[in-house]
Amino acid sequence: MPTITTGMIATNDVLSNEQVVDMSEQVYKLQPDATQFTTMLMELSKKQATQYVIDWLEEEYRPRTTSMTASATSAATAFGVTAGHGNTVVAVGDVVRVMETGEALLVTTAAASAFTATRSWGGTAAASATSAAKLMIVGNAAAQGASSGTARYVVRARGYNYIQEIRHPIFFSTVHMASELYGGRDPGKELVREAINHKRNVESTLFWGARDYSTSTSPGPTGGCGGAFEFISTNVTNTSGATTPAEVDTFLRTPLSYAEDPVLFCSPLVASILSQMYRGIWQPNQGGLQKYGVKVTAFLDSTYGTNVPVITKKEWIDLNATGTNYGTYAFLIDMAAVRLRPLRGFNVGSLRRNIQEPSATAEVHEYYSPLSLEFAHESRHGILKGATSYAAS
Q1: d(CA 126, CA 267)
Q2: One domain for residues 206 and 309
Q3: Could you tell me the pTM of the whole model?
Q4: Do 131 and 190 belong to one domain?
């Protein structure tokens, strides 16, 4: 016998399966696609890779400074310098200034870790120098009729990185794909969301990836693409909490002296600190300054007068922002010295369709990005970390 009720029929009397769900057609995403670094590299600088490992060459000019390793009196003619610099950085006939005293020296002989010199070359009198003294090679002054001397050559350095295969498969049953869903049917709806997830994974690899290569994995080797974090080791500034404008200026000084096209990628916390420091020269985001096809703000560096684009990595809000955790980081990257290297025939987010085995009553699609990152001359880049608050001084 059916269930019978009396009186008013209310919403609780109707079977839940009978009720039409008031479902919005819009699916609200927690975060928008925020893969600016990847987007910039895709638009500006990329080259197809043809091997599992990519290589590049880096070259520098001959150094023009060295350091003393022992003190020297005003009468000394021999000077100990950094090992290997005595006959490479310094050469016979070079005029060298002792930056501590201003005295100029004329180099007469050179060995691996020392050289001899004529004192008080020029108008500055000979003076004692400490073991901490720095020396600047001004230029060469050759004797008339002398032989050409010993040639010096700065050896180029090899840079390398590995191809990493970034894969995100999506599996749909045939029955599920025939079902009507709010917001659209699959596989189309889920493919859109997974495309963003995949690109975010690529973005994370370009910043935080680890360079490695293993032949012990199955069924074949596994390559790891090193990101910016892996390559920048020298220009790393830890402000250890309260961060001052002077500390930021010091951090920027070295990479900006080399960088051609610098961009600052920073966590939301660092962006907030910068906004407090540079209110007078921070450019407001007036609808989004369109550079590289992404929205950026910028500030004017006070040392070199460089307009530095600033991109806030909103997705880093979920990274721990205490101590030196990654939520306290900012990367200064010279876009002229980095290049995306997708494997030949592929690009970021290549979609491989219908890769399921033949008897399956399902469809399998996969986003596939076999790629690497070319990252040259770490002196053109930098990392700021440990910035947890603003301090005026």
Answers
A1: 52
A2: yes
A3: 0.81
A4: no
